[in-house]
Specification:
The chain is α+β, with helices and mostly antiparallel strands. It is built from five helices and five strands; from the N terminus they run E-E-H-E-E-E-H-H-H-H. A hairpin with a 2-residue loop joins strand 3 and strand 4 (60-63). The chain is globular and about 60 Å long.
Length: 182
C-alpha cells in the first residue's frame, strides 16, 4: 500500500480556522497564497533569505516559504491581513505609514510582521548580536538604531527604505511601550 502524499489540514490563521487539502510538500506560503487567497505575504526569493514571506507563528516570526503547511497545523498563524484591530492599524503599520517605511511595498508585509516580533523580542529582554551586555542583570538594552538594524537584518528591501524602516520600528516600539504602561 502506497502512503498518501496529501491530507486535509486545519490552519488557525488570524483567529479563524481553515480546513484545506494539501500535498504534504506544500509550503505555508503557498497554502496562504494559492489555497486561501491571503496574498499579503509575498514570494520573494523562495529560499528563506529575503523575508518577504515573514508571518508570525505563535507570535514568533517565521519565513513561510520554508515552513511546511502541515507543520503549521495547530499553531496560531498571523499574517499581515490579521495584524490590524479592525479599522485601527497596528502601531507598526501606522509607523510605516507615518514615516514612509516602504517604497514599492513588496517587502512591507514581511517587514511589518518581523518588526512586530522584533519589538516583542526586545521587550522580553532577548539579546541580539548587537547587544553589548547580554547578562540578565544588565536589563533590557535600549532599542537603538543598531539594535533594530541587527534584529531586522533578515528582511531585505530592494528599494533601500532601511532608514525609514528603522525609524518606523523605533516609533512603533515607543508607542507600544506607552500603551503597555497605561
Amino acid at each position: 500500500m502506497t502512503p498518501s502524499t496529501s491530507s486535509a489540514i486545519t490552519l488557525n490563521i488570524n483567529g479563524e480556522k481553515y480546513t484545506l487539502p494539501v500535498d504534504h510538500r506544500t509550503t505555508l506560503l503557498d497554502a496562504l497564497r494559492e489555497h486561501l487567497d491571503l496574498t499579503g505575504s509575498k514570494k520573494g526569493c523562495d529560499l528563506g533569505q529575503c523575508g518577504a514571506c515573514t508571518v508570525l507563528l505563535d507570535g514568533r516570526r517565521a519565513v513561510s516559504c520554508l515552513q511546511l503547511a502541515v507543520a503549521a497545523e495547530g499553531r496560531a498563524i498571523t499574517t499581515i491581513e490579521g495584524v490590524a484591530d479592525g479599522e485601527r492599524l497596528h502601531p507598526v503599520q501606522q509607523a510605516f505609514l507615518d514615516l514612509d517605511g516602504y517604497q514599492c511595498g513588496y517587502c512591507t508585509p514581511g517587514q511589518i510582521c518581523s518588526a512586530i516580533a522584533v519589538i516583542e523580542e526586545h521587550a522580553a529582554g532577548w539579546p541580539s548580536a548587537a547587544t553589548d551586555d547580554v547578562r540578565p542583570e544588565a536589563g533590557v538594552p535600549a532599542l537603538s538604531a543598531e539594535e533594530i538594524r541587527e534584529r531586522m537584518s533578515g528582511n531585505l528591501c530592494r528599494c533601500g527604505a532601511y532608514v525609514s524602516i528603522v525609524q518606523a520600528v523605533a516609533q512603533a516600539a515607543e508607542v507600544q511601550g506607552k500603551e503597555s504602561a497605561a
